[in-house]
Design goal:
Blueprint lengths: L1 H4 L2 E6 L7 E4 L9 E7 L2 E11 L14 E7 L4 H9 L4 H7 L16 E6 L5 H6 L6 H12 L3 E2 H7 L3 H10 L3 E6 L17 H11 L6 E7 L5 H13 L5 E5 L7 H10 L5 E4 L5 H13 L4 E4 L11 E6 L17 H12 L2 E6 L4 H8 L10 E5 L11 E6 L11 H12 L3 E5 L8 E4 L16 E3 L4 E3 L6 E3 L12 E4 L3 H11 L5 E4 L9 H10 L5 E4 L12 E6 L3 H4 L6 H13 L10 E6 L5 H7 L3 H15 L6 E9 L2 H18 L4 E2 L9 E2 L2 E10 L2 H17 L7 E6 L5
Parallel strand pairs: 9-14, 9-15, 10-12, 10-13, 11-12, 13-14, 16-26, 17-24, 17-25, 23-24, 25-26
Antiparallel strand pairs: 1-2, 1-4, 3-4, 3-5, 6-7, 6-8, 18-22, 19-20, 20-21, 27-30, 27-31, 28-30, 29-30
Helix pairs in contact: 2-12, 8-9, 21-22
The chain binds adenosine-5'-diphosphate and zinc ion (ZN) (2 copies).
Length: about 750
């Protein structure tokens, strides 16, 4: 019987079904983790082999053979993705395939561009073997003496010795003298002329603590203000970790922080270790090559954004997550994972340390590292850097400008204008932070109070004056700016409020001699625009930067001494329970742009609520007290991190459908359980989005396990609800907002 010899492959496919699929191995030899092509519902799909088994729940004669098995990529470890599929209640096949570079989701083999390096085999009596090689084989002798001088040589180095180096190396390999390694074709590293700074005591002790516990799972929180030398700490720790044979390290950063400067700093300081980056600005072929380099072990350092937390790395020895509080670590569609939590699980599975770094840690992390009642507290180590690393660099002075007492004109208070003029006169730079792009947030009719709103979303249409258009920033809808009020015909309709473009225009008016640059998603469309602009800023070709949070992060501006915050009062009173936490982090970060070199910095915050606790904490730069205060509030309200949320979101053309689905789902959950609090369906702040009526159902539990137990029983029932096919729904575990 032919079938006896067949192996059954359990395969994960990118289909929205929460199960795996059995196929026969056919004429192929497959391993767990291999990519395969199978025919599924009349289409050819890429899948990944999860298991090889002898039996199937299906009649074996009905199973189809796989169409192809690629030997190009092997996932060596599926534990992490299995955990995620379970925890986020997301189909494993979809989770797995979605972490692959696009090229690996296609029905073709992946071709990796390989590069090799050569070195002498250790512990071999080279001289003895060499003495047996006839002297007329000059090239062999020359290669050996070159390798004795230079411990490792790339193919390109050997080519310089002779164009027929390849044959000679094959012979030397046969003799057991030379070994070959696959390496990443590293971009030219910056010559390491950079000086290693002398660590201050806090840095030295942080490094010492981490290095004392390396081959074990250990989470660290590195809490230090901007400029306190956190990056320096990561670099020196990695240097040590990577000095072990084969070790790899993963450095996670928020998308916007992965600047060429940061990459260059790691490259130059760790120039002996091949480094690749993984982020959304790479071309598909770059992404593939970098991913392959990581998964083959050839790349030793991976700097990447959110998704790179899943990249296979066979020798991973340390994970660093910079700016761990950043919201961009949370995936907001498909599998809604949080890269911080995934990284933590990965470190635990691999039994390696993980460092979370931030000036303003997330309350989750702060709670884990400091709460004495908390079981995790025993695991987390807290490392603090309290001063700026560069001696002369002082903390900026932070003041509030009371806009109730000193009203703003065109968005700017007299005090802020005066401060801008002073900077101009001293040839120093200023940054104005306003978290709204466009010209003005809304168009308004004075006669009938009409405001421009989107028909598809519960949102205002933003005025983009230069293009003479109104745009919805949520669904992309746009239209021409009307000449008169669409409601009453009045011709006197005006943009109300301020956004980046209007502020830029106002400044040009007020300070005609100033060179002003705007930084937002509209002005920075082009991939290199931000880098070019930053170069101009460094060469002092710009006096004033106006921008959104794009400017807040990661950039070092030595000549910048003034930061003005235009209007954050909306965020101050937002219904989002994380609003204060986020605003505090954002303002600390943007304040950190001022005075990073010898020049003292000043931060002016325009607000009508200068007495707000958030500003008190900010003025004294006291994250710790503020975080503890917020934690108490969260605890009193039973909000995360002291309790756990899951959110079932739904949307449909008609709210009645959404509502019906959510109530049915809610009732099912209530029948299953008593431990988890199940709220009634409500509408989110943005009730309508892209033409769909939205609703959500909140589940709250005091412990994670109880919540997960319920979800495990509940989700299959929700999937089976007859209307679940008619509406769009998703489950968000540990939602960031609702
Ligand atoms: P962070 O990552 O906390 O913002 P960085 O590591 O970027 O801080 O350090 C801020 C600046 O201080 C950088 O220019 C860095 O080169 C410098 N620096 C860091 N540590 C030291 C040190 N021990 N002595 C002198 N300069 C340092
Ligand atoms: Zn009107
Ligand atoms: Zn819209």
């Amino acid at each position: 019987m032919l079938i006896m010899n067949q192996r059954i492959l359990s395969i994960a496919l990118d289909v929205p079904l929460n199960r795996t699929f059995d196929y026969l191995s056919g004429d192929f030899t497959a391993c767990v983790g291999n990519r395969v092509i199978v025919s599924f519902a009349g289409r050819s799909l890429v899948g990944v082999v999860l298991e090889i088994k002898q039996t199937s729940d299906y009649p074996i004669e009905k199973l189809k053979p796989v169409s192809h098995v690629f030997d190009d990529v092997v996932f060596d470890d599926l534990k992490l993705l299995k955990f995620c599929a379970d925890y986020y209640h997301y189909p494993l096949g979809q989770a797995l395939i979605s972490t692959l570079p696009l090229r690996l989701r296609q029905l073709k083999p992946a071709v990796s561009r390989k590069a090799f390096a050569y070195q002498l085999v250790e512990n071999v009596d080279t001289e003895q073997i060499l003495s047996q090689i006839p002297t007329k084989k000059v090239l062999l002798h020359r290669i050996i003496s070159a390798l004795q001088a230079l411990p490792i040589m790339a193919s390109s180095d050997l080519f310089l010795i002779s164009s027929s180096w390849k044959k000679a190396v094959i012979e030397l390999k046969k003799l057991g003298l030379v070994e070959e390694h696959e390496v990443v074709a590293v971009q030219a590293s910056i010559p390491s002329s950079c000086i290693e700074p002398t660590l201050n005591d806090e840095q030295a002790s942080a490094i010492q603590s981490v290095l004392a516990l390396t081959h074990t799972f250990k989470p660290w929180l590195l809490h230090g203000i901007t400029g306190s030398g956190k990056t320096e700490v990561y670099i020196q720790i990695l240097k040590k970790i990577l000095s072990e044979k084969n070790a790899q390290a993963l450095v996670l950063v928020p998308e916007i922080n992965l600047t060429p400067q940061l990459e260059a700093r790691f490259r130059s300081r760790l120039s002996q270790y091949p480094l690749v980056t993984l982020h959304s600005n790479l071309s598909e072929s770059e992404r593939l090559q970098n991913w392959l380099a990581a998964s083959s072990g050839a790349a030793k350092i991976i700097i990447g954004t959110r998704l790179s937390v899943f990249t296979p790395m066979p020798h991973l020895k340390m994970i660093v997550m910079d700016e761990e509080h950043d919201g961009s670590y949370k995936q907001q569609d498909s599998m809604r994972y949080h890269a911080r939590d995934v990284a933590m699980v990965r470190a635990k599975q691999l039994n390696i340390p993980i460092i979370l770094g931030s000036a303003t840690p997330s309350l989750e992390t702060w709670f884990n590292a400091t709460d004495s009642q908390n079981a995790k507290k025993q695991q987390y180590g807290l490392l603090s850097l309290k001063q700026r690393a560069v001696q002369q660099a002082k903390l900026p002075s932070i003041f509030c400008v009371d806009t109730a007492k000193s009203p703003t004109e065109s968005g700017l208070s007299p005090l802020l204008i005066k401060a801008l003029r002073e900077r101009l006169a001293r040839k120093e730079q200023s940054l104005l932070f306003i978290n709204r792009r466009g010209y003005a947030p809304v168009l308004h009719c004075n006669a009938c109070q009409w405001v421009s709103s989107c028909t598809r979303c519960s949102a205002r249409l933003v005025v983009h004056l230069s293009q003479k258009r109104l745009k919805c920033h949520h669904c992309g809808h746009e239209q021409k700016i009307p000449l008169q009020c669409p409601s009453c015909g009045n011709a006197d309709i005006r943009p109300v409020g301020h956004a980046t473009q209007r502020l830029e225009q106002t400044l040009q008016h007020l300070l005609p001699s100033a060179k002003i640059a705007r930084v937002d998603r509209d002005s920075m469309r082009n991939k290199d625009a931000l880098t070019d602009l930053l170069t101009q800023v460094h060469h002092q070709q710009i006096d004033i930067l106006v921008g959104t949070q794009m400017l807040a992060k990661g950039h070092d501006f030595p000549h910048l001494t003034l930061v003005g915050v235009i209007d954050t009062d909306n965020a101050l009173h937002s219904p989002d329970f994380r609003a204060s936490e986020k605003l505090f982090a954002q303002l600390m970060q943007v304040s950190g742009r001022a005075g990073r070199a010898e020049k003292a910095g000043e931060v002016l915050i325009q607000t009508a609520f200068p007495q707000h606790a958030l500003f008190h904490a900010l003025r004294s730069q006291d994250y710790v007290s503020y975080a503890n205060e917020l934690l108490q509030e969260r605890n009193a309200m039973q909000f995360p991190p002291t309790s756990y949320f899951a959110l079932l979101r739904a949307e449909a053309n008609d709210y009645a459908l959404t509502q019906q689905f959510l109530s049915k789902a809610g009732n099912l959950a209530r029948e299953l359980n008593t431990e988890v609090m199940i709220y009634d369906p409500i509408r989110p702040q943005m009730e309508r989005l892209k033409g769909l009526e939205r609703g959500q159902l909140l589940l709250q539990a005091n412990n994670r396990l109880a919540l997960q137990r319920l979800l495990k029983m509940w989700m299959p029932q929700v999937r089976e609800l007859p209307m679940s096919a008619k509406i769009r729904w998703s489950l968000d575990i540990d939602p960031l907002e609702f």
